[in-house]
Write a structure and sequence with these properties.
The protein is mostly helical. The chain has 2 helices and no strands. The protein has one domain. It starts with a helix and ends with a helix. It comes from Lysinibacillus xylanilyticus.
Length: 59
Amino acid sequence: MTLLVNILIGSIIFGYAGITLYKSIKKQKKGKCAACSLQKSCSTNTCAPPSKLKDFTQK
């Protein structure tokens, strides 16, 4: 009985860690701004690639 409880608790902990790691890797692949907590209210274009920065300054 105790072994079953330990296996259940261990699989919950490792499952949560795996899901968190997967989400973190997905965010990192999107780039610096995707992981930023200020993404929606950010007024700077520092995360944009250089070609997009040129487009913003030319308009």
